[in-house]
Design brief:
The structure is a single chain. This protein is of the alpha/beta class. It has 16 helices and 32 strands. Helix 12 links the parallel strand 21 and strand 22. The radius of gyration is 30 Å and the shape is elongated.
Length: 684
């Protein structure tokens, strides 16, 4: 004898619901104001018509929206609706299915009356259906409500006309399938046999969780200088605050600080990660902790908490949120090492194990052992996070979270999110896909990605599709062309052009993107054969003369890209992306679109991006657009676009010639000017 599920399937089955994580034990991700898809496989026995609706539920459990689902895979019973939540919080959703008696009757009556079969029977059944709809009587659905009075009048009149034998059968039928009647049944359907899927959780985050422009700095480099005797004077938080207007002026809205804590001296790393520090070497800020304090302290050379508070206040005044590195490892000099040696791993010879990623060794840091005293470590880290939140930090960039237990992150992220809604965490986990996705699933709001290593056209196209359609409910991607740790071979010899290309791909390919300070200078010298920059700021002071970067042009490009992102909501959403074919594999073209019902203006926003992938040579070729797919069909087959990078206007159509080169331009960011109808708008 077989086992019966605790809950039977809906009367009209609903299976394979999306987005669902771990059978609904973890909430799927969404963001306020951004449309996202709900999908399900829905079918029934026999041939009677049915329908499905995606029902979005507010945090209080009340119904927020009910959106008719459309068949996106004819013959496979796969249905989809696009919805959007308007505020952050713990939302949920379900899928409803129901029998559609009107659609069934309309189909059958049209066929039978046209063939002269059961004419009077079909017309009478139609009249009875009109009356039932007017009364708000649905079979197996006590929640059915009567339509508005004006609709009741139309339905009653339709029933009378269906029974009026003074007119022809076709005339009588027309009364039941008129446009007014069809609209009533569309807006107020008669839902027979209404049933529902399970309710699935949905974590709706604030906008910054999805869309932002990050700028990374090492505060100690801001205003640092070298004395005549060769010794260095560190920059300060006050000096870093003076750079904030420049950062905000480029359109960034997050300033990210690498660790600002005291740095240990035991096994301190020297220039370019050398094992021995020379006198005056500042050490890696990731070697956290000294007798002056640990993760809850500020390096004395940078200033104090009053300086930090002034930095945060200045940043906020310029529209910048402050993100702080949360690097959970300790220098041998960290207070925790003496106070809680049980929080670390002791080797057979009695020494504490330093961090390793064989063959790499990191003698300047001890990793925490989360198994020895998990509760003690949890409370200590939770207290550290609380300190920085109390001083205005709203975002944490978490260093190497994949080296800590997932269960730890699930617990602490839930704890912080409950206590401080809107606090965001970015996972710096360049590791296996399963770990990256799971970290997102258990609570990380944003994630670093493999974008940096996707260089060929097919790789980039596949990855844009992956992060937008396959994993968007699990992890929100951030695209970084380089970091203080990463300088891929592609960036070594492409000069200014490759830095421009990768900036365009990052800024236009993901709602959140970021650059590491110095990107404006095209700092592209690797350390030997390693995929990391030479003279790495991680191990030395790197003050820069920012005025010298202006002639290079990257600063201006970044400013224009961020301005386009700010102007166009299509560039600040994740789900809706289309890849367009080109005649040359050195050209990549994609578009982002958001329908008018999800924009403040009520107008569909479409942006077409075309970028050269060749930093050395000019590229000429065609970009092919499916105008129907984009909702851009016109009587003349053309529409107007404006390039957000220079304001030029072009007339585009299905086949478009572009000419790009490192000398003239390397890309187009084309906003569609002409009013048009988005196909996404049909998903209502």
């Amino acid at each position: 004898m077989g086992l019966v599920s605790e809950k039977l399937l809906p009367r009209i089955p609903i299976i394979e619901v999306f987005p669902v994580i771990e059978d609904g034990t973890l909430p799927a991700k969404a963001t306020e104001g951004e449309p996202f898809p709900i999908r399900a496989t829905v079918f029934r026995e026999g041939h009677d018509a049915f329908a499905a609706e995606a029902v979005l539920l507010r945090p209080d459990g009340g119904e927020y929206s009910r959106t008719r689902m459309v068949d996106i895979a004819p013959g496979l019973d796969r249905y989809e609706a696009w919805v959007s939540a308007d505020t952050p919080g713990a939302w949920s959703f379900r899928v409803d299915s129901w029998s559609d008696p009107y659609a069934t009757w309309r189909h059958d009556a049209t066929v039978k009356v046209g063939a002269g079969v059961d004419v009077e029977l079909m017309l009478e059944e139609g009249a009875l259906l009109m009356e039932r709809a007017a009364e708000g009587t649905a079979y197996g659905n006590p929640s059915q409500k009567r339509p508005p009075a004006s609709d009741i009048e139309v339905l009653t009149d339709a029933a009378r006309r269906l029974r009026d034998t003074s007119h022809s059968a076709q005339q009588r039928l027309s009364a039941g399938i008129s446009s007014r009647v069809r609209l009533i049944f569309r807006d107020h359907p008669l839902r027979d046999l209404l049933d529902s899927s399970r309710v699935y959780p949905l974590d709706v985050a604030r906008t910054k969780a999805l869309a932002g422009a990050w700028y990374e700095i090492f505060p100690r480099s801001a205003g640092a200088f070298q004395r005549p005797d060769g010794t260095w004077v560190s920059g300060t938080l006050a000096g870093a605050a003076k750079e904030l207007p420049r950062i905000a002026g480029m359109g960034f809205d997050v300033v990210y600080l690498t660790p600002i804590h005291p740095i240990g001296t035991t096994h301190r790393k020297g220039k370019n990660n050398s094992l021995e520090a020379a006198p005056g070497d500042p050490g890696s800020p990731y070697g956290i902790g000294s007798p002056e304090g640990g993760h809850d302290a500020i390096h004395p050379e940078l200033g104090d908490f009053d300086d930090f508070d002034r930095f945060v206040e200045r940043a906020r005044g310029l529209g910048l949120e402050v993100a702080l590195d949360l690097a959970l490892q300790c220098s041998p000099d960290h207070p925790w090492v003496k106070e809680h040696p049980e929080w670390f791993t002791t080797r057979a010879d009695g020494t504490i194990a330093y961090a390793e990623n064989p063959p790499k060794k990191y003698q300047d840091i001890y990793p925490l052992n989360f198994d020895n005293d998990p509760e003690g470590i949890y409370n200590a880290i939770r207290a550290v996070i609380e300190v920085w939140i109390s001083h205005g930090v709203t975002i944490f960039r978490v260093d190497n979270p994949h080296t800590k237990p997932v269960r730890f992150w699930q617990r602490i992220l839930d704890d912080v999110h409950r206590a401080h809604p809107g606090t965001l965490f970015l996972a710096e986990a360049f590791t296996r896909p399963a770990m990256m996705r799971t970290l997102g699933a258990v609570g990380f709001d944003q994630s670093y990605t493999y974008f940096t290593w996707r260089t060929y056209k097919h790789e980039i196209e596949e990855y844009l599709e992956e992060v937008s359609t396959q994993t968007a409910h699990l992890m929100r991607p951030t695209f970084w062309p380089t970091t203080h740790d990463i300088l891929t071979p592609q960036m070594w010899d492409g000069g200014t052009a490759i830095f421009a290309i990768r900036a365009m791909l990052a800024a236009l390919g993901s709602p959140t993107w970021g650059v590491y300070s110095g990107y404006e200078f095209v700092e592209n010298t690797p350390r030997g054969s390693f995929e990391e920059p030479n003279d790495n700021e991680k191990y030395e002071f790197r003050p820069r003369r920012w005025a010298d970067a202006e002639p290079i042009g990257i600063s201006k490009l970044i400013t224009l890209l961020n301005a386009a992102r700010s102007k166009h909501p299509a560039l600040r959403q994740l789900h809706q992306i289309r890849i367009h074919p080109t005649s040359d594999d050195r050209l990549i073209a994609f578009s982002r679109q958001i329908p008018g019902r999800f924009t403040d203006s009520g107008q569909t926003d479409t942006v077409i991006c075309v970028i050269s992938l060749d930093p050395h040579n000019g590229v000429d070729g065609s970009v092919y657009l499916d105008l129907a797919e984009l909702g851009l069909e016109t009587s003349g087959g053309h529409f107007t676009v404006v390039d957000e990078l220079d304001g030029r206007t072009y007339l585009w159509g299905a086949d478009n010639w572009v000419s790009l080169s490192p000398v003239t331009r390397l890309g187009h960011v084309l906003s569609v000017e002409q009013a048009h109808t988005s196909p996404w708008s049909h998903h209502e």
